[in-house]
Specification:
The complex is a heterodimer. Chain A is built from six helices and eight strands; from the N terminus they run ααααααββββββββ. Chain A is an alpha+beta fold. In chain A, helix 2 packs across helix 4. About 3% of the residues of chain A have low confidence. Chain B is mostly helical. Chain B has two domains: 89 residues, Rna Polymerase Sigma Factor, Chain: A; 54 residues, Arc Repressor Mutant, subunit A (Orthogonal Bundle), CATH 1.10.10.10. Chain B contains nine helices and no strands. The radius of gyration of chain B is 18 Å and the shape is globular. Classes of the chains: A alpha+beta, B mainly alpha. At the A-B interface, helix 2, helix 3, helix 4 and helix 5 of A face helix 2, helix 3, helix 4, helix 7 and helix 9 of B.
């Protein structure tokens, strides 16, 4: 920075005259600490101003000092009303007041602590209650799901029962062609409604990758018709609908079933008895 | 004008809100401050008011004085000057001035009086070149900022700044 130019700019005069903005004033003040030349120039300007002021010094009127002191005294009393009271009385009063303030402060503090503790307690309670509510809602939704499931099962059972009790339904007992084996089950066929059900609960579980497949055989036709696949132990299963059948047979096929039955794996067979 | 040791003593009393500071300030500086205020407001009655107000303000703000930012007298002078200048800009002051002027006209003594700017000018200031004297008047007694002076006198700001500086340097030499 060019200190000489800065001094010549006249900003220091403004600094001394007090006409700078706060920012400008602070800036000059900072620089005066940094540059002794600026500080000394400010001192010179101040000295000039002091002399200029002294040059037309005028003695003030005699009572001015008393008036000023009176005004300052009044100012003090307004700022600090305790000064109005005699000192001997003022002191114990002040101590009493101080004690009262201390007690009030202590009471406030205790109140605050209690309030904080209660806040903590209630907030915990609230949190716990919220957890419980969340749990109840979850349980309720599980229960609702279960009710829905049971309802669905009930509807299905009623539907199946309706089929079974339908006068047009023909129960077809299918048994193992091997006389040594005891396995048997029931196919429920309703020619009027063409629906076919098969009872699966009595059948043994198959190895992984295999499924039972139900076939319908019509006398005079060589190729049996697939009525669908099913697994063991899944209740009364509705399979594909068919119009005609004289016999029903079950084979074991790979998952998804086959187009033609694997005769070596024929496990059950039975004739439709229309009488 | 004032010994440094004395100033430090006054400052330390002032910062401690000791009432004796006001007495000492009064003893040391009130003639100079009174002279400046009187020159600015031009009426002894208003000067008394300004003096009281200014001393109260000094008392109220006593702890704000920072000796690193300037001499005590400079700080005091700016408080007194600013209050005096504020007075001249107040409505009350203006209406009083009009009354005074009317009085002067009615008593027919107005022909050679009441130009405030020339009352009590010291010989030293009188010796300044006129254009510098005007600048000192505006800056010192009217509290104009350099910008305001530039606008008032229709001069570039840089010229105003350097002229005020020249005026003060000139004064110093004359004193």
């Amino acid at each position: 920075m060019n200190v000489k130019e800065y001094i010549e700019s006249g900003i220091l005069e403004e600094y001394v005259f007090g006409t700078l903005t706060k920012e400008e004033f602070d800036q000059v003040h900072q620089l005066s600490k940094q540059y002794p030349l600026i500080a000394s120039e400010i001192a010179v300007i101040e000295e000039t101003i002091i002399q200029l002021a002294a040059a037309h010094a005028t003695p003030p009127p005699v009572n001015l000092l008393d008036n000023i002191l009176k005004e300052i005294k009044e100012e003090e009393d307004v700022v600090n009303p305790n000064n109005l009271a005699p000192k001997s009385l003022g002191q114990p009063k002040t101590i009493k007041k101080l004690r009262l303030y201390k007690m009030l402060l202590a009471a406030c503090f205790i109140g605050l602590v209690c309030s904080l503790a209660l806040n903590f307690y209630f907030s915990n309670q609230l949190l716990e209650a919220n957890h419980k509510i969340a749990k109840f809602i979850q349980e309720k939704s599980i229960l609702a799901d279960q009710v829905q499931k049971v309802n669905n099962e009930l509807l299905l059972n009623q539907e199946q029962l309706a089929y079974a009790l339908d006068p047009g339904a023909i129960p077809v007992k299918i048994v193992s062609p091997d006389q040594n084996k005891q396995s048997e089950t029931l196919v429920l066929w309703n020619p009027n409604k063409m629906s076919v059900f098969v009872a699966t609960d009595l059948l043994p579980q198959l190895e992984e990758g295999n499924q039972y497949q139900l076939w319908a055989l019509v006398n005079g036709h060589d190729a049996p018709t697939s009525v669908g696949v099913f697994d063991a132990a899944s209740g009364l299963v509705q399979v594909r609908s068919i119009v005609r059948a004289d016999k029903f047979a079950v084979t074991i096929e790979p998952i998804g079933g086959s187009e033609t039955p694997t005769l070596e794996k024929l496990v059950l067979i039975g004739s439709v008895n229309r009488t | 004008m004032i010994e440094k040791a004395h100033e430090e003593e006054i400052v330390s009393l002032l910062l401690n809100k000791d009432e004796r500071a006001i007495r000492l300030i009064y003893d040391q500086y009130s003639p100079a401050l009174y002279g400046v205020v009187l020159k600015i407001v031009g009426s002894e009655q208003i000067t008394d008011d300004v003096m009281q107000e200014a001393f109260t303000k000094v008392w109220r703000n006593s702890t704000l004085y920072d000796s690193s930012k300037g001499k005590l007298f400079t700080w005091l002078l700016n408080i007194f000057r600013n209050l005096a200048i504020d007075k001249t800009r107040s409505k009350q002051y203006r209406s009083q001035q009009i009354q005074i002027e009317e009085k002067i006209v009615s008593t027919k003594v107005g022909s050679h009086s009441t130009n405030i700017n020339t009352i009590g000018l010291t010989e030293v200031v009188q010796k300044l070149p006129p254009e510098l004297k005007t600048l000192i008047d505006l800056a010192f007694y009217k509290g104009y900022t350099h910008k305001e002076i530039a606008a008032e006198l229709n001069l570039p700001l840089g010229t105003v700044k350097s002229r005020i500086r020249r005026a003060l340097v000139h004064l110093r030499e004359l004193m």
